[in-house]
Specification:
The chain has about 230 residues and is an alpha+beta fold. It is about 25% helix and about 40% strand. The N and C termini lie far apart (about 80 Å).
Amino acid sequence: MPEKTEEKITAETRTEFGKGAARRIRRDNKVPAVIYGHGNDPQHITLPGHDTMMALKRGGTNALLHIDIDGTTVLALTKQVQSDPIKGFLEHLDFVEVRKGEKVTVEIPIHVTGEAKSDAMVVTDLNTVSVEAEATDIPEFIEISVEDAEAGFHVLAKDLVLPSGSSLLTDAEALVVNVVHAPTAEEVEAELEEAEAEVGIERDEPADEVAQAAATGSESGSDSES
């Protein structure tokens, strides 16, 4: 399970609001953001665009940032990231203020690594699991190896290795990863024909089979004439 690095970002207090202000902020390669939590009024800030994007890439879905606001450091857990769907730049960020030792509920991504046996197929039933963990000890992802796994291998939510002090909120018996028999080309073809038959689809005979049947008929006709 990968360890998270401490990401420190210096913010500026934001006093301008609205779409026009947000566009001006982004033109300066900065990102408008809001920090909520602990009964405080929302803190509207501006973050450096490049440094923030790199911190989020390193920290993952639940990146924890140490944000310096006017000399005071705030622990901020990433809750929502809005980015441009085409160009990819950050448009707006929402954070929740947390404290060391405080537990939060987060969705942790599942990463499947390795290659199963050639006759097996890996099915990922859950892409994330819900966990209650200490805000400063949230893994970027949970890794499951299926290297050389055979059909029948499976991992349930209760089998996952979580950080010390964490609690699994997803159903313990939920199937996360399942390795099943990989169907052969013949089995796929048979299933397809069966499905087509059920809905009344009739396949045209392949051209070579039609030609062969015609040739067989001609030969039979020649034999009868002689």
